Amino acid sequence: MGLAKRVLSLTPSSTLAITAKAKELKEKGEDVIGLGAGEPDFNTPQHILDAAVESMTKGFTKYTPSAGLPALKQAIINKFEQDQGLSYKATEIIVANGAKHALYTLFQVLLNEGDEVIIPTPYWVSYPEQVKLAGGLPVYVEGYEHNHFKITPDQLKKAITNKTRAVILNTPSNPTGVLYTADELLELGKICLEENIIIVSDEIYEKLTYFGAKHVSIAQLSPELKKQTIIINGVSKSHSMTGWRIGYAAGNKAIIEAMTNLASHSTSNPTTTAQYAAIAAYNGPQEPVEEMRQAFEERLEIIYDQLVAIPGFTCVKPQGAFYLYPNVKQAAEMTGYKSVDDFVEALLVEAKVAVVPGSGFGTPDNIRLSYATSLDMLQKAVQRMDQFVKERIK
Fold first, then answer.
1. Residue 215 zone, left/alpha/beta (φ > 0; ψ -120 to 50; rest)
2. How far apart are the C-alpha atoms of 101 and 76, rounded to whole Å?
3. With the C-alpha atoms ordered 20, 119, 246, 102, is the resulting torsion angle positive or negative?
4. In this predicted model, what pLDDT tens digit does every residue of 238-247 receive, in sequence order?
């Protein structure tokens, strides 16, 4: 049976693949420590769970508007005003089935065949595939490790052609955890305005920043940049609600309207119960968000020094998200592996530690570790990796 051409070139998600493989080994009784998953290890806060149950008890279990409940849109609008000083109308917001689906819908309505989208590397694994599914062409710009994985204005300018439609900026970044500063965003934004390039600003990790670093949205830097930007965000990471699948997009009214029309024919609406939960997430107490952030910061502070002490490991220290992205090329070479992918495979099979190879993020010399797991397990995992490398150094 033949498949459509549009799916034949798709690359399976490496993050989900490693998680599935680790789970398979665990089910066979193997003592595997999984550092692949991109989700907090905290349960969704109780007041959010209560709100979801209450909505179902009251019978709020039917269709909602395709772009989301008005009350949830208002909660999102209030959040933007409070956090970034940004003002949006309800017609400039669409609630989707997770931030991933918001991005997918955006590219579907934004791109024509052959349109180019600039994607800085390392990138989140789904960006290129979603662009390709919309008929677009990913254009990669390398964020050099010595520049903390961030692209420069000169690099952005050189990548622009007459087919460039958009650029994706992800800050804090998955997989590196680095943040762009306001000055850096302003310089990149100037070029986007000059060239009329749409800015897709993925801000899903905005609440998870550390050591005094603050997230800045490029849309808050000027009215012109706000008009040029579509913000993607959601409650998955900030409120530990990955399974609820509530994300959203904010920006140009015409684009949001097109996304809403597409959603009306594809999903009808985000899950009703999850929308009521998301309302509670934004309108309720925010202490659980801060408690989770502090826990991640503590883990990062402790585990970073242990990680970079492993022979052959170097790592740009993250300021946000919950990932470490060490360069382990030297460790792979010292231990006799031809590639970091092979090194990662051996780590899982022999050391029982599951990490994600950087090849899935466009940088094959790195690996991604999630520290959204207990400190005890993190330290145990790092000890295993350290022992694995030292025993095999040739």
1. beta
2. 17
3. negative
4. 999 999 999 9
